[in-house]
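Exercise 3.2. Students should predict the tertiary structure of the chain below and write it as C-alpha coordinates, then compare their answer with the key that follows.

Predict this chain's 3D structure.
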Amino acid sequence: MVLRNETYYLIRSDMLPEAIQKTVEAKALLASGEAQTVQEAVERVEMSRSSFYKYKDGVYPFNALMKEKIITISLTLEHRAGVLSGILSYLATQRGNVLTINQTIPLQGIAGVTMSLDTAQLLTDITTMLEGLKSLEGVKQTQLVSRGE
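Answer key:
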Protein backbone atom coordinates (compact mmCIF):
# COMPACT_ATOMS: atom_id res chain seq x y z
CA MET A 1 0.00 0.00 0.00
CA VAL A 2 1.37 3.41 -1.00
CA LEU A 3 0.71 6.32 1.35
CA ARG A 4 0.13 9.70 -0.29
CA ASN A 5 1.21 12.94 1.27
CA GLU A 6 -1.91 15.08 1.00
CA THR A 7 -1.29 18.78 0.55
CA TYR A 8 -4.06 21.35 0.99
CA TYR A 9 -4.36 24.78 -0.55
CA LEU A 10 -6.55 27.77 0.15
CA ILE A 11 -7.71 29.05 -3.25
CA ARG A 12 -10.13 31.86 -4.08
CA SER A 13 -13.28 30.32 -5.60
CA ASP A 14 -13.13 32.30 -8.85
CA MET A 15 -9.73 30.70 -9.54
CA LEU A 16 -11.18 27.16 -9.46
CA PRO A 17 -12.27 25.28 -12.57
CA GLU A 18 -16.02 25.35 -13.20
CA ALA A 19 -16.44 21.63 -12.42
CA ILE A 20 -15.03 22.09 -8.91
CA GLN A 21 -17.17 25.18 -8.28
CA LYS A 22 -20.28 23.28 -9.37
CA THR A 23 -19.30 20.33 -7.16
CA VAL A 24 -19.29 22.66 -4.14
CA GLU A 25 -22.69 24.05 -5.18
CA ALA A 26 -24.14 20.55 -5.59
CA LYS A 27 -22.81 19.45 -2.19
CA ALA A 28 -24.39 22.54 -0.62
CA LEU A 29 -27.76 21.68 -2.21
CA LEU A 30 -27.55 18.16 -0.80
CA ALA A 31 -26.44 19.32 2.65
CA SER A 32 -29.25 21.88 2.91
CA GLY A 33 -31.90 19.44 1.71
CA GLU A 34 -32.75 21.59 -1.33
CA ALA A 35 -31.81 18.58 -3.44
CA GLN A 36 -32.76 15.09 -2.30
CA THR A 37 -30.50 13.09 -4.62
CA VAL A 38 -27.15 13.52 -6.33
CA GLN A 39 -28.93 13.38 -9.68
CA GLU A 40 -31.21 16.27 -8.69
CA ALA A 41 -28.28 18.32 -7.37
CA VAL A 42 -26.11 17.88 -10.46
CA GLU A 43 -29.02 18.69 -12.76
CA ARG A 44 -29.69 21.92 -10.87
CA VAL A 45 -26.07 23.07 -11.16
CA GLU A 46 -25.77 21.71 -14.72
CA MET A 47 -22.91 19.26 -14.31
CA SER A 48 -22.39 15.57 -14.93
CA ARG A 49 -22.64 12.95 -12.21
CA SER A 50 -19.20 11.64 -13.13
CA SER A 51 -17.61 15.07 -12.53
CA PHE A 52 -19.41 15.35 -9.21
CA TYR A 53 -18.14 11.94 -8.05
CA LYS A 54 -14.64 12.76 -9.28
CA TYR A 55 -14.34 15.85 -7.05
CA LYS A 56 -16.84 15.39 -4.20
CA ASP A 57 -14.40 13.88 -1.69
CA GLY A 58 -11.66 16.41 -2.35
CA VAL A 59 -13.31 19.81 -2.25
CA TYR A 60 -14.87 21.56 0.76
CA PRO A 61 -15.86 25.13 1.50
CA PHE A 62 -13.41 26.83 3.85
CA ASN A 63 -16.07 27.36 6.56
CA ALA A 64 -16.78 23.61 6.63
CA LEU A 65 -13.16 23.00 7.61
CA MET A 66 -13.38 25.71 10.26
CA LYS A 67 -15.91 23.59 12.15
CA GLU A 68 -13.14 21.18 13.09
CA LYS A 69 -11.96 23.11 16.11
CA ILE A 70 -10.93 22.56 19.65
CA ILE A 71 -12.62 25.04 21.94
CA THR A 72 -12.24 25.86 25.61
CA ILE A 73 -15.32 26.78 27.62
CA SER A 74 -15.74 28.06 31.16
CA LEU A 75 -18.75 27.12 33.27
CA THR A 76 -19.98 28.33 36.64
CA LEU A 77 -21.91 25.54 38.36
CA GLU A 78 -23.89 25.00 41.52
CA HIS A 79 -22.10 22.53 43.77
CA ARG A 80 -24.71 19.75 43.69
CA ALA A 81 -24.53 16.07 42.82
CA GLY A 82 -25.28 15.31 39.17
CA VAL A 83 -24.67 18.77 37.66
CA LEU A 84 -21.40 17.84 35.94
CA SER A 85 -22.88 14.48 34.93
CA GLY A 86 -25.79 16.30 33.25
CA ILE A 87 -23.36 18.50 31.33
CA LEU A 88 -21.36 15.51 30.11
CA SER A 89 -24.54 13.73 29.07
CA TYR A 90 -25.74 16.80 27.14
CA LEU A 91 -22.38 17.14 25.38
CA ALA A 92 -22.49 13.46 24.42
CA THR A 93 -25.95 13.89 22.83
CA GLN A 94 -24.58 16.86 20.84
CA ARG A 95 -21.53 14.77 19.83
CA GLY A 96 -19.08 17.11 21.53
CA ASN A 97 -15.92 15.23 22.46
CA VAL A 98 -14.60 16.25 25.90
CA LEU A 99 -10.80 16.37 25.91
CA THR A 100 -10.07 17.89 29.34
CA ILE A 101 -11.99 18.89 32.47
CA ASN A 102 -10.62 21.08 35.26
CA GLN A 103 -12.76 21.94 38.28
CA THR A 104 -12.01 24.36 41.10
CA ILE A 105 -12.78 23.59 44.71
CA PRO A 106 -16.34 24.77 45.36
CA LEU A 107 -16.69 27.96 47.40
CA GLN A 108 -20.04 29.09 48.80
CA GLY A 109 -21.83 26.43 46.76
CA ILE A 110 -20.32 27.46 43.40
CA ALA A 111 -17.64 25.64 41.38
CA GLY A 112 -15.76 26.75 38.29
CA VAL A 113 -15.20 24.24 35.50
CA THR A 114 -13.05 24.65 32.40
CA MET A 115 -13.40 22.15 29.55
CA SER A 116 -11.65 21.61 26.25
CA LEU A 117 -13.87 20.12 23.55
CA ASP A 118 -13.30 18.76 20.08
CA THR A 119 -16.22 20.12 18.02
CA ALA A 120 -15.47 18.28 14.75
CA GLN A 121 -18.58 16.08 15.11
CA LEU A 122 -20.80 18.63 16.87
CA LEU A 123 -24.42 18.43 15.69
CA THR A 124 -25.05 22.14 16.18
CA ASP A 125 -23.09 25.39 16.16
CA ILE A 126 -21.05 26.39 19.20
CA THR A 127 -23.36 29.24 20.23
CA THR A 128 -26.39 26.95 20.31
CA MET A 129 -24.42 24.34 22.26
CA LEU A 130 -23.43 26.97 24.86
CA GLU A 131 -27.05 28.11 25.18
CA GLY A 132 -28.08 24.48 25.67
CA LEU A 133 -25.50 24.08 28.41
CA LYS A 134 -26.69 27.26 30.14
CA SER A 135 -30.26 25.95 30.18
CA LEU A 136 -29.24 22.86 32.16
CA GLU A 137 -30.14 22.63 35.83
CA GLY A 138 -27.30 23.84 38.04
CA VAL A 139 -25.45 25.76 35.31
CA LYS A 140 -25.17 29.43 36.26
CA GLN A 141 -22.96 30.70 33.43
CA THR A 142 -21.22 29.52 30.25
CA GLN A 143 -18.53 31.29 28.28
CA LEU A 144 -16.40 30.51 25.25
CA VAL A 145 -12.80 31.12 26.34
CA SER A 146 -10.87 30.20 23.19
CA ARG A 147 -10.98 28.57 19.79
CA GLY A 148 -8.05 26.75 18.25
CA GLU A 149 -7.01 23.83 16.10
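Discussion points: The longest helix spans residues 18-32. The chain has two domains: 15-65, 70-148.
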